[in-house]
């Protein structure tokens, strides 16, 4: 029996979900036990991540435009989302006492930049619809982390709503993006472009690099 796009995406989200306790930093933030310096580091690194990811998603949209317009639509939506995310990062950066000079002068941590580096690799060589599946699985985990951090920033660290807007954006529902993911995977199933083994491989690596990001924030700053 042919599976639906919804089933393919649900299997990826479920099968690629990080193990409980795999992220060591977010539970400490949720409990109010992480140092405030972590949030400044997060903001600085995310300026790099978002800028890189936006280029990667735009490139994937361009690659898919002619032969896979449904996947192109997914990545176009992501590109617009990165623009909004970057604007929402400003209040968090300011709340951490950072100015534009600090953002420009920041030397990124390799462990925090592994994820966008791999996203750029996917942008160059992955079948776009396979990347749709992989990213959808990762976004489910990322959204959960952002929900926990946003709540903790208010409860334990005294951040106001504008400073938490970045986390609220990623924690909230994204019905348009979900619809575009379903459309892309439906088209991929119909055309035979979708291949779940590489899609899951990409997703597994994205999840690992996601955890590396949080570990690098929490541990050795040279990671």
How many strands, which pairing sense, and closed or not: the largest β-sheet? none
Class by alpha and beta content:
mainly alpha
**Secondary-structure element order, N to C:** HHHHHHHHHH
Rg on CA atoms, Å: 17 Å
Work out the helicity level. Answer: over 70%
SS elements, strand count: 0
* Distance from first to last alpha carbon: 46 Å
Beta-strand proportion: under 5%
Total helices: the number is 10
* Unreliably modeled segments: none
* Integer average pLDDT: 96
| Shape, principal axes of CA atoms | globular
Describe the structure.
The structure is a single chain. The chain is an all-alpha fold. 78% of the residues lie in helices and 0% in strands. The chain is built from 10 helices and no strands. The longest helix is centred in the N-terminal third of the chain and has 28 residues, at 37-64. The model has no long low-confidence stretch (mean pLDDT 96).
List keywords for this structure.
223 residues; mainly alpha; single chain
Outline the fold blueprint.
Layout: H1 5-15, H2 25-30, H3 37-64, H4 69-95, H5 100-105, H6 110-125, H7 128-155, H8 161-171, H9 175-191, H10 196-218
Helix pairs in contact: 1-7, 1-9, 3-4, 3-6, 4-8, 4-9, 6-10, 7-8, 7-9, 7-10
Brief sketch in words of this structure:
By secondary structure, the protein is mostly helical.
